[in-house]
Design a protein that fits this description.
Blueprint: E1 10-12, E2 18-20, E3 24-25, H1 33-45, E4 49-51, H2 59-68, E5 77-82, H3 89-103, E6 110-113, H4 119-133, E7 140-143, H5 147-154, E8 163-167, H6 175-184, E9 187-191, H7 203-212, H8 216-226, E10 230-231, H9 238-244, H10 254-261
Helix pairs in contact: 1-2, 2-3, 3-4, 7-8
Domain NADP-dependent oxidoreductase: 30-264
InterPro entries: AKR, AKR5G, Aldo/ket_reductase_CS, NAD(P)_OxRdtase_dom_sf, NADP_OxRdtase_dom
GO molecular function, one term: oxidoreductase activity, acting on the CH-OH group of donors, NAD or NADP as acceptor
């Protein structure tokens, strides 16, 4: 694995595309000034990876934030996702066009299936493969796919997904899934890396923060990166966006990496990919 060096460092996807390993998530950031400013603040501070989704209803603001920043579009790794109600072949192609229009761009850097929908997702994937072959998106992947979802998709897929974005934090490591993805060349990515704020309650995190003289968020985000996992903490507050990215002047010792791995309880704070109703 490449060393974790700086905010614009990347992991290489299996098609050779460089994906910045640290980014800004904008889930729950309101469209309009809130998300525009968050994106602008992140990019102007040095972030180069922005993750949104059709269902977040803020793609328009994300696009504006990019245009109003000091950073050129081609220097931003921009991600969006197709929502469940748009899954299927033709409807995915339409949904992609609609996302591009809202974002004000003519391509995406990564497009993901947001949740696994069985047979329907195979049709969705066929559409996404078409977009990829047409060079309208630089990389393609999935989100919330467990091993059996991936295995099922791979029975008909021409192209192996380049990324799998999962709920990932010390209470939900799913190391078997991480290893499965690594074996298939699928880059693992964390959503909800801070356990929806619950990470701040853990005494062990307070101990580690004191030991390294870093914040709890910085400790857990550094753990993600050292595990080779792309991470996209969300915040709309400028000072937190800046603090979250201050990860490159320290390294977690191996025993502390193992300590965090050992907190795994298989506990989710978000929906279960095997049991959701949307």
């Amino acid at each position: 694995m490449k060393p974790i060096t700086d905010l614009q460092g990347t992991f290489e996807l299996h098609n050779g595309v460089q994906m910045p390993y640290f980014g800004l998530g904008v889930y729950l950031s309101k469209d309009g000034s809130e998300v525009i400013n968050a994106v602008k603040d992140a990019l102007n501070h040095g972030y180069r990876h922005i993750d949104t989704a059709a269902v977040y209803n803020n793609e328009e603001g994300v696009g504006k934030g990019i245009r109003e920043s000091n950073v050129a579009r081609e220097d931003v790794f921009l991600v969006s996702k197709v929502w469940n109600t748009d899954q299927g072949y033709e409807s995915t192609l339409k949904a992609f066009d609609a996302s591009l229009e809202r974002l004000g761009t003519d391509y995406l850097d990564l497009y993901l299936i947001h949740w696994p929908k069985g047979e329907l997702s195979k049709e969705t994937w066929r559409a996404i493969e078409k977009l990829y072959k047409e060079k309208r998106v630089r990389a393609i992947g999935v989100s919330n796919f467990l091993q059996h979802h991936l295995e099922d998709l791979l029975t008909t897929a021409e192209i192996v997904p380049m990324v799998n974005q999962m709920e990932f934090h010390p209470y939900l490591v799913q190391q078997d899934l991480v290893d499965f993805c690594a074996a298939k060349g699928i880059q693992y990515e964390a959503w909800s890396p801070l356990m929806q704020g619950n990470i701040f309650e853990l005494d062990i995190m307070k101990v580690l923060a004191a030991k390294y003289n870093k914040t709890i968020a910085q400790i857990v985000l550094r753990w993600d990166l050292q595990k080779g996992v792309v991470t996209i903490p969300k915040s709309s507050k400028k000072e937190r966006i800046i603090a979250n990215s201050d990860l490159f002047d320290f390294e977690l010792f191996q025993e502390d990496m193992q300590l965090l791995d050992g907190l795994d309880k298989g506990k989710r704070f978000g929906p279960d990919p095997d049991n959701f109703n949307f």
